[in-house]
Amino acid sequence: MTTVxxxxxxxxxxxxxxxxxxxxxxxxxxxxxxxxxxxxxxxTLVVGGTGAGVTTGGLVRNxxxxxxxxxxxxxxxxxxxxxxxxxxxxxxxxxxASEAQTALSNRIGNLSDAFTALSSGxxxxxxxxxxxxxxQTLAKSFNDYTTLINDLRQQSETxxxxxxxxxxxxxxxxxxxxxxxxxxxxxxxxxADLEDQRDTAIRNVSQYIQISTFxxxxxxxxVSTKQGQALADTKAQKLVFNASEEIAxxxxxxxxxxxGLYINSTGGIEISQSAIGGxxxxxxxxxxxxxxxxxxxxxxxxxxxAERFDTLGLRLFTDADGNVPASVAPPAAVTYSGFAxxxxxxxxxxxxxxxxxxxxxxxxxxxxxxxxxxRITSFAFGNVAAQNAAGTIDITGNIFTAASLTQVNHLxxxxxxxxxxxxxxxxxNLTLPAAFDLTIGGTTQTINIGAADTPVDLVNTINAxxxxxxxxxxxxxxxxxxxxxxxxxxxxxxGAAGMADLGFTFGTxxxxxxxxxxxxxxxxxVTVTILPTDTETDLLNKLNAIPGxxxxxxxxxxxxxxxxxxxxxxxxxxxxxxxxxxxxSITNVNHTSxxxxxxxxxxxxxTGLAANSSIGDYAKNLxxxxxxxxxxxxxxxxxxxxxxxxxxxxNSSISGVDLDQEIAELIRVQTAYTAAARMITATEELFDTxxxxxx
Length: 695
Hints:
alpha+beta, four-stranded antiparallel β-sheet, 695 residues, 17 helices, rod-shaped
């Protein structure tokens, strides 16, 4: 019995000593990153149904494995959001604060203001130079933006390469630890400290890519990608990434000179086109999606801006060869990827700023005209490119016949007949009754004026002879004639003096041909007269002789008028109503829309911006959208970081070392140790008593 007591006491001392070592180790490593609280399992030793002391197992970790998996996933999400937030913050710095007025939209506004000032003094050397300078500042902003995007993409390549090395080192460490842990587990030994190191390595991998884990035989943790490709068990796979020496605006992946992320070799499993998560996933998203989209947006803005100026007769912005890349209809790939990086002010304009006033495309500008500057001011910065006009009738053949045109003859006297009261007999030199001969076209009628006739009676007599509307008393009280043929006034009995009292002299008054005036871009109006013999060819020749105007006969034979270099168009009747007879009306023609899809060097990018915009609005939308993307990335990072902190705190409360808890455990162990020591003392006394009795 005494021997059993001694064995029990000794097992208690041993267990207490191991427990003291465990508590001491926990306290010593309380602040060690990755360290988890260790627990020494103990159980009663029973021999023959009777307690015979205490036995201990191997150290185990106090961890929640499900929580650890969630923590690893959250580390990936947080790092992905962080890297995107940091990169996009650089783009926001480029745009600058709103009060700084340095964004592309502000630079475009400054150029618009410069043209407005120039329109008030087109010959001013100061205004001309200021406009060129505003254009150069804008072009440099496009260049600098492209440089920034390329630099960020190049930096992403460098960081991906460095992070892949980190992942490979950690995967190798995980595999080595798995081998050691499996050996210890198979031998029934504790591997708790090695498991801590393995979790630290797994967490390190999860910073860079999102992973999935499960525990296999002998406590081996298998690490794989989110899509299930194995990365490490007792053997580590190797991630392969070949960084490009220099990224250009024409670089893209796959097939455009950039590398992907593979397992073991470039011929292995490709994983970079899947949502791999983590910092590396965020960097691939930046390199291949977000930043290329930003470049496509600014390229589209640069190209449309240069094209709109060019179509208005001013090639202000060009590429290095002095050309303006043309728009391409979707879905064909654009030919101007990277144009924002090389856009510049036309060298000819830099050398001769007066071209801002006269234009660069060889258009005809009348002497003293400010039409080019006004055209740019009114149309280059807006949604409308030009005002075109079209008729509604077929003008083929004789124009008079096709448009039902007639000559026009409006003849009015110069005397207010209403001053003769109560009738025309009150006129000084008009002796009534009297008569005069009136010939309209080939018809002659004698107009008799009675002794008591009033002006209204005279009008009624004329209209009875030639038809309603031929004569009238106008607002000034004057006798007026309206006809489509020559009008002849001849004497009968009225005499020249009597005729003068009616406001006329004898003679023939020829009818006028219909005419209308046309003005292109505010230049002096040109009058176009249509003769009774004119055909569509004659009319088109007269219109095409107007500087800056092209007239054609469109579908259905209608008349079409188009300013050669865009801009404004106006016309009005001069004689008759030929504008209405031809059915002419003006319509606004919008600029070529901004491309939204099939952009970038691979033709697979979309801008996400409105197609029908002015260049200023497009630039504002560009900045706004990119700011929104940054704000979303920043908000996502803050949210993910907050949740990560919550998981870390929860994990720490479970697996971390609580000093108060460890002190309490220390006191408990010390008490157990003291009890075991007292049992040994009691056993010693029993042995002494037994020896004394034997002696």
